[in-house]
Structures are given as C-alpha cells and as structure tokens.
Design a protein that fits this description.
Layout: E1 11-16, E2 19-28, E3 31-41, E4 47-48, E5 51-52, H1 55-67, E6 71-72, E7 78-83, E8 89-96, H2 102-113, E9 121-130, E10 134-143, H3 144-156, E11 160-166, H4 167-175, E12 190-196, E13 201-207, E14 210-217, H5 221-232, H6 236-246, H7 256-282, E15 291-295, H8 304-312, E16 315-318, H9 329-336, E17 337-343, E18 354-360, H10 366-378
Parallel strand pairs: 1-7, 7-11, 12-15, 15-16
Antiparallel strand pairs: 1-2, 2-3, 3-6, 4-5, 8-10, 9-10, 12-13, 13-14, 17-18
Helix pairs in contact: 4-10, 5-6, 5-7, 7-8
Length: 381
C-alpha cells in the first residue's frame, strides 16, 4: 500500500523501535527460499512511538544491516518496508453504491474513521468484494509526516523504495497459507494475529482473504522485562534472558518469572477479549475467530500459547513464519536459532545454577518475511 515499484526481489526491511530485521528472498521455479537474513538491535531513543528521532544513527545501522548479513548476501538496494503500526489505520468498510464518485465516498468514510484531516494523511484502498447494493473496501491510512520521515530515511540511506506497507498486511502475508498465490484450499477460517513487540503489541483479525481490522494494544515486552529486573533486582539484559529461559514455567526460578508475567497475561487476555467482542459485533457475517496466531518476540515466552488457549477457549499457537517458503526446516532452523544462558542466581536454591534455552527466532522475522514476499507474489506470473 501507498507506494509501488517493480523489481525482483527487493529486501523486506522491518523497522521497529528497538531492532532492524532484513529478509531477501530468491525464487527458483515455484520454490521460494531465503537469499539473505540480517538483524541488528537498536538502543532506546532512536525512535519514539514510531517517529524517527535520530536519523543519522538509524541510517548507520541500516547500512550495517545490509552490509554484514547474518546469512547469505544482499543483492539489491531496493526495499519494501513497513510503517509503524501505531501510526497506521486499516479496516474493512462497507460502502453503499451511489452515483457519486467512489473516491469521494471513500474520503467521507475515512473522515468518519480516522481522527485526522484528509490533507494530513496518505491513504489507499482496495476493492475486496462487489455486491449488488454495496462494496466491501479495505482502506488504509497513515499521517503524511510519518510517511515522509520514512521516505527521507530510506532515500538518505541510498535505498530505493519498492513499497511502504501497513505492518498488519505484511504479517498476514508472512503467516497465513491463504495469502500464497498457489493456495488451493477453502479460505474460510477467521484468524486473530497477535504481534507482541518490545514497545507495543498489535492484534489483526483476518477472514476470507482480507483484513477486517487491526488495533494497537498497550502491552510492551520491554516493560515486562523492566518489571522482571525490578522484582529480581538484576540488570535489564539478565532480566531479558530470564524471561526467555524461564517464561511461564513454574519449575524455573521457583516460579518468580511466571508470577511476574501473569500481570501481562491478564492485560493481554482482556484486550483480546475486547477485540473478539468487537469482531462479533461488527463482523458477524465472518463467523467467530477460529484460531489465534502469536508472533513477535513475546511469542517466544514459554507456554504463553497454552495459557492463552485456556483463558480464551480458542486455539492459540505460535505462528509459522516459514509457512509460505520452501526451505529445509532443519537446515534453516540453525540460522534462526539463538541460545540464551544465565547464571540463575534468583534465590539461595538457584544460586550458581546455569540455565540455558535455545529457541528458534524465526517468528520474530514474520513481518520482514511478509514484506519480502510482496514482490515475489506479485511476480507470480
């Protein structure tokens, strides 16, 4: 959405407040595989609520990301990147058929839904379904000043923009088999996709080949880590490792991490239930949510999917970021694997005990993979 170009195959560049992630894909026949993969963590302060605050340091990090990939080699300077989810709006709307120009009708609807003047935003729309008396339109919008910030950033980094997308569009493309151009089944399931990020979380509801709506939730993996650090009186880096290693396992660290995480789980469950009620009230024709997929760094919290399934009475599972790729799972898992270790000195019983956990980090690349797939899918012919 917003900007388009033509090149095969541009980098999928996921820009977030605390990290940069890159995926470039290659295609042989119908087989889609990873050409290059890269990730860099960013210090706090370069972004604030999606707005760019230190362009020079971000550009330096982008150049390092592209120049020194973790795997493979980057063969292009063209990118598809996403706009910050908290600064975008996307929703499926119904528009009655009239003699009036469709653009005027859509602009009027945007003014109803988006708390900004038309002159202050860029917007795009897509016809999803044409019915006898109405049309279903997927519309997206973002403030002009935010879009222009990202365009300037990428221009100064000497990158060519193939497209700027709303993040939830990329997530759906990266996590749902229904988005693949060769999908043969019935696209009859309704999904909730929950991206638990370092600074904020987001839930997107998708059904019958379209996004229905998306909204941001004030749940931050970063704040959870800070709370763990305060509770255990350890520094932030150790708290992050403790969160990854222990998760919701009662037998790890005497359940201290589990108990600290429960406050976040309670808030997350409440927000998910609110979104389910919104869906049931405004989109009853699409049926109930069949499954919830977790992605982002928070999806790696041990046993989170099981606990949410229990509380929500809906099947919850970690998303599969490789679902639309044709990679050897065993081979590629080594590239995404990260081992975390910590001297678990949380209490006298755990003193000097080293804990370790190796996790597959591919789920944190869901957005980058979805961005990279955009031009691959467009080039299907």
């Amino acid at each position: 959405m917003f900007l388009s170009g033509s090149y095969n195959y541009p980098i999928g560049l996921d820009i977030s407040d605390l990290s940069l992630k890159l995926i470039q894909l290659k295609k042989t026949g119908d087989k889609i595989a990873i050409q290059a993969l890269s990730k860099i963590d960013l210090p706090e302060g370069l972004f604030k609520d999606g707005e760019i605050k230190n362009k020079e340091k971000i550009i330096k990090a982008v150049n390092e990301l592209i120049g020194k990939p973790k795997y493979g080699s980057v063969t292009t300077k063209e990118v598809v990147t996403c706009l910050p989810e908290s600064k975008t709006f996307i929703k499926l709307i119904e528009v009655k058929k009239t003699e009036e120009n469709i653009l005027n009708t859509i602009e009027a609807e945007i003014e109803r839904h988006v708390p900004m003047e038309i002159s202050e935003i860029y917007f795009d729309w897509q016809l999803i379904k044409d019915l006898p008396d109405k049309q279903l339109i997927l519309m997206g919008a973002s403030p002009r000043n935010i879009v222009n910030q990202y365009i300037d950033l990428l221009d100064e980094a000497k990158l060519s923009i193939a497209a700027l997308e709303i993040e939830s569009v990329s997530l759906c493309r990266g996590l749902l088999a229904e988005e693949h151009y060769k999908f043969k089944g019935e696209a009859d399931k309704t999904y909730g996709i929950i991206d638990i990020g370092a600074k904020r979380s987001n839930m997107t509801v998708y059904s019958k080949n379209t996004i229905l709506f998306s909204f941001t939730m004030p749940i931050s993996g970063n704040e959870i880590t800070k709370k763990i650090a305060e509770t255990l009186k350890i520094d932030y880096k150790k708290a992050e490792k403790a969160k990854i290693i222990c998760g919701l396992d009662q037998n790890k660290a005497e359940g201290i991490i589990k108990n600290t995480l429960y406050e976040m789980i309670k808030k997350l469950t409440e927000k998910i239930n609110n979104s389910i009620m919104f869906h049931d009230r405004h989109f009853p024709d699409y049926g109930p949510i069949d499954k919830i997929l977790l992605c982002g760094g928070g999806a790696n919290i041990k046993n989170l999917d099981k606990l949410l399934s229990k509380h929500l009475s809906i099947k919850v599972e970690r998303g599969d970021a490789l679902i639309n790729l044709n990679e050897d799972r065993q081979k590629i898992s080594k590239i995404f694997s990260e081992t975390h270790s910590l001297n678990a000195n949380f209490s006298p019983k755990t003193k000097n005990k080293i804990s370790k956990r190796t996790q597959n980090d591919s789920i944190t690349f869901s957005t980058a993979i979805g961005l990279a797939l955009r031009e691959v899918f467009i080039d299907k012919l």
